[in-house]
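[Meeting: bench + compute handoff]

Bench side (C.D.) handed over the final construct sequence. Compute side (W.E.) agreed to return the predicted structure before the next meeting so the bench team could plan truncations. Sequence as handed over:
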Amino acid sequence: MRSKITRAFCLLIILSFLFTPLAAKKKTPEAYLKGIDKFITERMEKWNVPGLAISVVQDGRLVYSNGFGFRDIEKNLPVTPQTLFAIGSCTKAFTATTMGILVDEGKLEWDKPVKEYLPTFKLKDTFATERMTSRDLVCHRSGLPRHDLMWYNSSATRKELFDRLQYLEPSEDFRTVYQYQNLMFMTAGYLVGQTTGTSWERFVRNRIFMPLGMSNSNFSVNDSQKASDFALPYMEKDDKLIEIPFRNIDTVGPAGSINSSVMDMANWILLNLNNGKIGDQQIVSEASFKEIHSPQMISSKSFRYNESFYSMYGMGWGITAYRGHLRLSHGGGIDGFTAQVVLLPRDNIGMVILTNRSGTPLPSIISNNVIDRLLGLDQVDWNSRVKKQVEEGEEQAEKAKEEKDKDRKPNTKPSHPLEDYAGDYQHPGYGVISIMKKDDQLNAVYNSMPHSGSHYHYDVFEFNYEMYDFSFKVSFLTDLKGNIGSFSTQLESAVEPVVFTKMPEKAMMEKSFLEKFVGEYMLGEVKSTVFLKGDKTLFLFVPGQPEYELVPYKGTTFNFKALSGFSIEFVMDESGKVTEAKVTQPNGVFTAKKIK
């Protein structure tokens, strides 16, 4: 009896095997993605996204690529798979890969201090300066918070920003806390350029773009606008889409300046899924990609939804699990553009989603849905979840806005006439903020961005960058002489306010102005000499004492650089000739006659 049952069971299995291929044949990726066009179109309308492009790869081939909406609303120009978008911080993985290539060539070591390659590298934290490695640069554990306003829209060169790093305050100890940071990726790109004797841009083009056939990709929005197929940047303001200017971020390019299309980016994804190999060419070793794709730093010990897991950061990639599947991804956002690149290495799936709207969560919603489809899982309603998150964030923002002015003191006045506050103010890391009086109000310009101002209370003023409704307050401070000498402002929330010092009038730095004070002066019976070093630096020499550098202060008054409380004021007659100098010291004021 048992043998008959066994034979019947085996026959049933054989028959089921013979007759199931046609009915239960494995679906193709294209079949799994059926209906995705409608899904994307409907959600673009809900999230007010003008244009979007997407490419999906699986098992070593492109399985889906399409463009939706408009790259130019006014001209009704459609998005295509070849349309150029800014990919923002998705650039970071390219920078990490250039470092991996140099590691393969023995020109760089992940764990060797940066100072061994860049001797002038310096941070405010001396320990971090000495111990920071190439690996540290690309996994957000430098101890520095973002300090983004230091570089945003700045005309400074990459080298100049690199030199200013030493003046930025850290907010955490080195290697203790994950803090997203663009300037260290800029430094990584600068390191690549210096190590290879070229530039980061040229190295990426020659060693990544060209082998991958990414011929349309570039490193500057200036270049994108010369192309035949590029997307314009948009943002939503007052529930309406508005076109905004392109934001050039070439200076910090290694952190986010690449512009590309989903067709070009599909090849980049294939490279990452194929352990650094494209065709027969090994662009970067499997060992280097293993390091780049491996967790280096815990970025979050919490998660909101059961489908996701704790978050980590590799080198230019965020790492987590999605519904039990290893997931690497990175978002990108710069003025008018939002992007996302996603890899599922163990499932051999990858995708890129590019949009031409600031700050939209749509790429994340779409990428999760594509994953659900390709894995044959029930589709999670990420759209409703994210919408709820956004609404909660807006409510919190409204509450914060209501609380913003709770400490404001009404009916107060500035301590000085408004013109006394005008001038250029400098911080060695953040650069120059210019304050000017216009129509009985103070306005400011920082990194070429105009800010309208208003009096807040006492000597505090608020300046607003109207395009993004971004504002910051400054508290003006007087020096011991009663003049406005500096202001403090909270440009980085994670550290103490930054202090900007008032710069002397530009005329006081000119050689023709300084030459008037050169000569010999008699202070009692002591003959002292005022002389120029170079064209812009005035010095005072008193016999038996060191040379004192004189720092321009105001009018014809100079402070002693090395001596607090010491200054010298040059007195001129009606013809403009210097007749004497009044030297102020802590114990009094002394007059020195100029020798004709």
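W.E. noted at the follow-up: The chain has three domains: 29-375, 418-503, 507-594. C.D. will use this when planning the next construct.
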